[in-house]
Design goal:
This protein is α+β, with helices and mostly antiparallel strands. The chain folds into four domains: about 80 residues; about 90 residues, Pdz3 Domain, CATH 2.30.42; about 210 residues, Alpha-Beta Complex (2-enoyl-CoA Hydratase, Chain A, domain 1), CATH 3.90.226; about 110 residues, no CATH class. About 40% of the residues lie in helices and about 20% in strands. It has 18 helices and 21 strands. The strands form five sheets. Strands 3, 4, 5, 6, 7 and 8 form a six-stranded antiparallel β-sheet that branches. Strands 10-11-12-15-16-21 form a six-stranded mixed β-sheet, with helices on both faces. The longest helix is centred in the last third of the chain and has 29 residues. It is globular and about 65 Å long. InterPro entries: ClpP/crotonase-like_dom_sf, PDZ, PDZ_sf, Peptidase_S41A, Tail-specific_protease. It holds the Pfam family PDZ_2. Keywords: Hydrolase, Protease, Serine protease.
Amino acid sequence: MSNNRKLKVFLPFLFAVVLALGMFLGHKMPAARNSSSVVFLKPNNRNALQEVMGLLQYKYVDSLQMDDLQTDAIEALLGRLDPHSVYIAPTQLKGVNENLNGNFEGIGIEFSLFNDTVNVVNVITGGPSEKSGLQMGDKLIKVGDSTIAGVNISFDRIRKFLRGPRGSEIDVTFLRNNKLQTAKIQRGVIPIYSVDASYMINPEVGYIKINRFSEATVDEFMEAARTLTKAGMKKLIIDVRQNPGGILESAYRIADQLLEGSKVVVYTEGVHSAKKEYKTNQPGLFEKGALAILVDEQSASASEVLAGAIQDWDRGTIIGRRTFGKGLVQDQYDLSNGGALRLTIARYYLPTGRSIQKSYKDGRDVYAEDLANRIKDGELINKDSIHLADTVKYRTHKGRIVYGGGGIIPDVFTPVDTTHYSHIQLLLYNKNLYNEFCYEYYMAHKSAFEAYKDVKAFNQEFDITPQILQAFYTYVNKAGVNTALKTSRDDKDISLRLKSIFARQRWRLNGYYEVINQEDEMVQKALETIKAQAE
């Protein structure tokens, strides 16, 4: 029994050694340079470790779950490397690739689970569901022969029912105006938009919100920038807060739209990866005019490359809080089991030569606690609390001092507004009560909301009345949230949140940001800053 336990402990290490050897040999083979290739060792070149693996699989006294052991071994091996070299299991790979590709295959609806029922909160224009007659407000009861209402179904389970190969068909049964109806829907390619919003804040200032960098981001950004330019944009705010990054090429190409001449945006280099420079080479849509980039502690990777290049070339002002600090380049290699290895192959270096990667020498656990430590140390409240391990000074194009080794430190610091995180507001958010109430209220007053021709008119003419606010408090009290301890500041913040979500119901995320940004301190700071730039 003791020997059996020892073997189970030893097996992951054994597999890790074998994988390390395989990766080393694979890297030396030309085919491994192609991320879609899989390298196999020839049977007649089996070494002792591979022989042991075979003996364990075919001769060991008990049955072994080789796939599980292999996964454990891979993760144990990668755990000794940087925090961003990861194994992607076959079950996760499709979703990961969809986010990077900027699309998936499905029926084209947004839904929410209210009262154990799948409610259609948006139907994508021109998508399969709209063509089949589905509407906002429909409640899905069955998909094929499977009942999905009142069965405590999960979001993931619903997605599996609704998504599938383009061209395939599903029958859905839904409730509309208390009557059961059916529709046959042919699945298609559904875009995942990476530009959440773009609009004119005032007659001269445009705003573009980017949530990730996918293959589609550049086209989305270009379309938004052209539309804003036609509307009179002379100054621009780009918001990459909470943007985790994505495809480097997309961030580089957007930077090319903002920087004039031939300038290095970023370069990558690693022990086994030759130096590669990404230089601007095209006439850009917005090479002149005041520019601000909004960042926070969750802006990472490609977001930091964009912000860092703008900062190093003194092209615009970086506003917000210190960014995440991810300056490592990953390449994805498909594996024979249907999974993938996302392996760090190089580092990003900004035009000044600085790396933005924060230290991971103390291990993944400490690395993962970085944000919590920033909160504890007061860094999100006070810029003077920022402490970097790397104190090497770099100079921007105009000679300003900047630092590497821990993200991008903004030119203009904006503290987090802790009043937005009162106990009652967190409860309302975590219980999804904002969305539930707004959806039900909107559907009950849909014609009144549709009377507003655009967000600007809605912003000017619609208010959260005391009656609407009281209706909301009655709703959340029934859901178990005691509102007795709310403050007048809570009333103000909650009213703004409700109004912005009503705007989202009518005009999607563009409406949401156009309303919520009116009271966003970072956006307001950006407006002040770019006004000063022009003067």
